[in-house]
Amino acid sequence: MNMKTTQLFIYIFLAATLLLVACGKSSSRQVIDEAFELVYVQPDSAAWLLENKIIPASLTDSDKADYWYLLTLSHLQERRSTVNDSLIAYSVQYYKDHSRFDLLFYACRFAYWQANDKQLKESFLQDAVAEAERSGDTIHLARAYGMQADFFYKERRYEEVIDACRRLIAIAPDERADAWYVLGLNYGRMGCEDSSLYYMSEAADLAWQMKDPLAEHYLRNYVDALSHSYPRKALEKYHLLVERYPDKQYAATALGIWQTLGQKDSVDHYLSLMENGLMIDPNPWYITRNVLTKAQRAYWRTQNGAPFDVSELAQFVDSTSVAAMNLVKDEKERVRMQNKLLIDNQRLEVKRQQTLTVLFALLFIFTVLGSVTFFYIRNKREKLLATEEKLDALQQLLREVTAVRIGTDDSSALPDSHFFRKVLLQQLGIIRLVATAPTEQNKELLQQMANIANNETQTDALLIWEDLYPIIDAVYDNFHTRLLGFASGRLSEKELQLCCLLRADFSTKEISVVTQQSVRTIYQRKTNIRHALGMNEKDDIVSFIEYSGEVSSSSGLLSEAI
């Protein structure tokens, strides 16, 4: 395994790690983007994605703001309780701090609708109005002023209601019907009955002309308001109501008129209708009507004169019904959140297990990579040490040859052993090993070898033993020839070459260098030679061959003489 392969493994590991880290973030963002597309058309699907596919604690600040914004909006769209959506305030603050004006106004609205605390609710309302006024968007301004009018009406801040409605009419004339209706209710609470009836009448007529879905609601409530003081006019408008909306039942409205007019038969008729219809309706919205009907029946039985005004009782039971419905919604939401927490805990446990698995996998990769790197470095170091040893041996050979040349130009003056070494070095292929590692030391070594070698001789050629054997015979008294005669058929070519190098006084390390074989191989071949020649393990190979060759030669001469 080379260094490039090691680097490749490291890059793959880093890329895999980054991918694992980024994967969660990417998938969460994709879920949020999908929820944005679904929240208005399929709010239940958007809520399911947010509640089951995302763990809020793992989100970035930006994604967290969008998450709580979408979750609150989906709950509002589904008419679910928003008791657990208080973190929409986080979205508001984040959008403020980061100038997310595309969502800030809506976040303020949702936070306003979600908040139960009056001060907090008004704070979000002010934020919504401020953002609408900053943007200058007429639609946003109309909605903001409408929210103000609604909030001030519930808080009985009558003058502020009037101011908000007037600003709403000024910025959005098409919203006049809604504004006039709120003004009518507001003046009624202030005790200004004529003003109240005027604005409620105008609201009902304008809504009918504009085909406003709330036109029926405005007209019915106008008739109810008329029945207390103007029962005859109320009866006239009641007929108009029935004419415009013939498919609807208005028993409670008719009951109020007949009670004021003192028509006993009509009152009993409509009370029976309400008791036999509304009383059995399970819809929680009818709680108010049910209680009101019972109160009206009790009033009618005890009536002694002027009609009894049950408006305060109606307001009470209305608030009771709303509270009851909110309790039901809150309980459902509590159960829903409990289930969500359970699911989140399970998902966290699964994610923890996945994280541990990834960590163990990464640890294994690190271990394997570390082991491979360790063995690679160790092998590299061992090869380097072996190369250094070979270079030392080669330098020794060079020193022996060059030492003799100092002080003489006559190559014939070289001792026989040095002459053989010079020829061998000329053929030596180890030069390529030196050339592949161009250190300063090796450069000097190459220069020394160039000085020794004949310029016409290629120093990177392989050893040519056909040329070396005659030199061995010439220098060492026909050693090669005698060796062939003595050991013919018993030694291989490589073993014969090894014997020649041993006769030239090459050490084991030097033989390893010039033959490019390991020291271990050289020792093994020495052992093989001893076995082939019938030698003892500690016998000197060259001495044994020299002695045996002389004996063999003497025997040959004696035979010829005989």
Describe this structure in words.
It is a single chain. The protein has 562 residues and is mostly helical. Among the domains are: 249-305, no CATH class; 411-428 and 463-561, no CATH class. It contains 25 helices and no strands. It has helices at 3-38, 43-53, 61-77, 88-97, 101-114, 118-135, 138-154, 158-171, 176-189, 193-209, 215-229, 231-244, 251-261, 264-277, 287-301, 311-405, 416-427, 431-435, 440-452, 465-475, 479-487, 493-503, 508-515, 519-533, 541-561. Helix 1 (3-38) runs parallel beside helix 3. The longest helix is centred in the middle third of the chain and has 95 residues, at 311-405. The model is unreliable at 19-25, 404-415, 428-438, 448-462 and 556-562 (pLDDT under 50).
Question: Which helices and strands appear, and what pairs or packs with what?
Answer:
Layout: H1 3-38, H2 43-53, H3 61-77, H4 88-97, H5 101-114, H6 118-135, H7 138-154, H8 158-171, H9 176-189, H10 193-209, H11 215-229, H12 231-244, H13 251-261, H14 264-277, H15 287-301, H16 311-405, H17 416-427, H18 431-435, H19 440-452, H20 465-475, H21 479-487, H22 493-503, H23 508-515, H24 519-533, H25 541-561
Helix pairs in contact: 1-2, 1-3, 1-16, 2-3, 3-4, 3-5, 4-5, 5-6, 6-7, 7-8, 8-9, 9-10, 10-11, 11-12, 11-13, 12-13, 13-14, 14-15, 15-16, 16-17, 16-19, 16-23, 17-20, 21-25, 23-24
